[in-house]
Structures are given as structure tokens and as C-alpha cells.
Amino acid sequence: MSSASIRARVRAEMIEEIKAIARRHLAADGANLSLRAVARDMGMVSSALYRYFANRDDLLTALIVDAYNSIGDSVEAADARVTNRDDLRGRWLAATHAVRGWALANPAEYALIFGSPVPGYAAPQLTADAAVRVPTTLVRIIADGAGSGRLPTPRHGPRLPPAVREVLARIRDTTFPGLPEALLARGMVAWIHLFGAVSFELFGHLNNVIEAREEFFEHQMRLMADLIGI
Amino acid sequence: MSSASIRARVRAEMIEEIKAIARRHLAADGANLSLRAVARDMGMVSSALYRYFANRDDLLTALIVDAYNSIGDSVEAADARVTNRDDLRGRWLAATHAVRGWALANPAEYALIFGSPVPGYAAPQLTADAAVRVPTTLVRIIADGAGSGRLPTPRHGPRLPPAVREVLARIRDTTFPGLPEALLARGMVAWIHLFGAVSFELFGHLNNVIEAREEFFEHQMRLMADLIGI
DNA sequence: CCTTGTCAAGAGCAGTGCTCTCGAATGTGT
DNA sequence: ACACATTCGAGAGCACTGCTCTTGACAAGG
After folding, report:
1. Cα–Cα dist B196/A195, whole Å
2. pLDDT tens per residue, range A125-139
């Protein structure tokens, strides 16, 4: 059994090394990851890689899950680092800046999880659990404010269509009991806008348009914090 | 000269046919467009395609420019179709729904221009002119409102950092003279959010989360219209 | 008519994902 | 300790890719 675990450990180390090299290739060459190139860097022949990953998609899936967990770690840590838990705006800015910071530090992995999906690739449910960590962290900030009574339900703005109210209520009931739908809706809007802002910057749509990236991002996050009421 | 033009015309027709087939392949197989497959569908051999496009990137660039112009046409037409030009909110909703409608109708082309950039592919300046049409149309709605005096400069919300105010002023001066920076900023935020909302839906991040897509989108657009003050 | 420019075809190169087979090494049960 | 079973890496090979270069056919223009 200890021998079985030594095999398992060496195997796990191989898998980690393959993923590490694959991440390097991803950062260098973008999404078109070559198994043969990874194998070359490992000093192996390409067919040997198939002992560890059934195919290229499997390797990509592993990288995707890792990426989701990596950005999830970053954002949760950034939120946790704010000592005054009642400073909702401070937590919001810390968490959103962590998203952008992680994206700028790991552009290829960001593109992997938030860019155009690879054609023919269907993300397994496995990825969803990891994917939900960032938006959950963001909405939790709002839920904390609503729960402590310091964040009022927005009274202005468009009324929620029944169909939207219904799907939001279902999300609320499973994760954020007691959170008003209107606040959840604004949280989702802010999360979608955050994703848009980071993607815009990373995918080059701000080139020759906005130069003061950091300041512009900060301003946007403050604006969305206002929208939520934080 | 008429013979030269007959040659040129046949050549132009060939180029159009290649692009049409390439678009079909793009829609079917996603971004990994195969020149050989396109050539097969044209009844030609792959090398013959190189008479019309220097390489695969050139073909992609042509498709990108076409896509930008296609969505630009859609959005401009949708805005123009609103007869009451003073109905800013109506124009806003028409234009933004046109963006989403075009994206849902042409998902592959949307991913081509708004998804993760192809690694090693640098978009030529040529694409920028076409790319600017949609955001210009959106901001023009705001500028029309500000110009006619019916859209006040937002007085609440975070103040613009000087660096942001500066870059916004430069954009304003070249395209929307007289538009207050604060309004331009909110227009850009709304445009970025719109891009995020459409991308989120199209790239599958709403799967198993939000089902009432159309209603949710509409609600979001109303919320952003409120943010602008429209 | 004959030159000139344009075009498609074919062969070929280097690369890709993936499969299959074959030894060699390594851990497991008796 | 020895035989068995499993795991692993290497290699060959298939079908595919983008791209280049050469060759031969054809049509337009002088």
C-alpha cells in the first residue's frame, strides 16, 4: 500500500509537472496548446502524455479547474484581508481589484476560462463548482450588508420582471437566504460588468482608447458600488 | 480596361465566395478555421486559396472587418429605425437589443471579434475603424440627449480622476464635442457592461444560472439606461 | 500570333492530435 | 523469492493542418 501510494505520488507529481509546463506554453503561445510541445519539454514522447490525460480536452479541463480555483483563491483572500468586515465598499474594491490583478498576471488562463469557448469543448459540471467561487464572494459582500441591515433594498430603478425575479429567487434561496432579489440582480450586473471591464482591457479593446487603465477601472468599480448602494 | 475589370470582378466574386464558405465553417466548427476545408468546399486545392489571401490570418482579418461592419450596420439601423429621435431610452434599448440579436444570430463571428484574441494575431489598424461604429452609435444617443439639453450631467456618483477625465476629454473632442466627461464615462461603462452581458450569455456563463435570458438582458439595459440618466 | 499575367494543381515540408503495439520497468500476491 | 499483473515510455503510423514551390494550362493585350 505504501508502494501503491509511492506510485500514486509520482503520478501526481507528473500530472502537476505536465500542467505546469502546459501553463507555460499557454502563457507563451496562447490557447493553441500543443501536446507534442509539452511532451518535448518534459523530455518524453507525445504518446506518453496520454498515460496521464485521455486527450487534449482533458488537459485543458484540468487547467481550467485550476484557473478557476486560482482566481477564486485570490479573490477570497483579498476579501478576507479587509479586517473591517463592515467596510463593504472596501471589500468590494479589494475583491474586484483582485479579479483584475489576477487576470493581468495570468492573461492566458483568464482567456481560457472567460474567453470564447473552445469549439466542440463542453465544460464538464466539474468546472462549475470552481467557477462559482468568485461571483459568490462578490455577492456575499452584498449579502453581508443586507443581512446586517446597513444595505437598503434599492427603491429606484426598473422593476424586476417576474421571470427574472423567479430565477433570482432560486439562486438566492440556495446560497444567500434573505437577500432581496433587487440586490442580487445588481450584484449580478456588477459581476457581469466587472467581467466585461477586465475582458475589454485584456482583449485589447481599450488600446488607443483608454490609457489610464488602473484609474479607469477604479472609477468603474466605484460607480458600480454606488449602483449597488454599498 | 474592361477586360481588366472583368478579371477584377471575377476575382472579387471569388473572394466573396471564399469568405462566405469560411463564415459557414466558422459557424459550424468555431474559430479553428481550416483553409483546406474551405478549399475543399470550393472544389479547389488548398494552395489555390493563397492566390486570394496571403495566409490564414489575412482571411481572418477580412472576416473580422466584415463582422465589425455587419454588427455596425445592425446597430446603426436599429437606432435609425426609432422615429422619435428624442426618445433616448427607446433608441438605447433598440440599439442594445440589436447588439444582442446580432450576437445570437452570428455567435461565431461575435466570438471572432469579441472573444479571446487569436494568439500571435495582431489586429491591423484597419479593423479599428470598423470596430468603433457600435460604441459610437451608443454614445451618440447620449450625446444627442446632452446636446438637446434634456440629459443632465450626473451630479451624484464618484468624481472622475484627472487621468480618466483627460483621456475621456480627448475622445470627446475628436468625436462628441460638448459631451460632458461624466456622461461619456457612463456611456463607456454601459458599453462595457453590454459587451459583458452578451459575452456572458454567449459564452455559456449563464448556463444553469439565469434562464430568462431575454428578460434579464432587458432589465439590465434598463438599469444601465437609468445609470446614464436616459 | 505570341507574349504576359493569372490561376489551379500537385508534391512536399514541418507540424498537429491520437492510436496501437511492443518491450521494459515496477509493484503485488503467493 | 519468484511469477504475475500493471504501469509506463518509446516508436511507428494515420489523418489532418498551414504553407511553399514548381509546373502546366488558359485567357487577355499588344
Report:
1. 6
2. 788 889 999 999 999
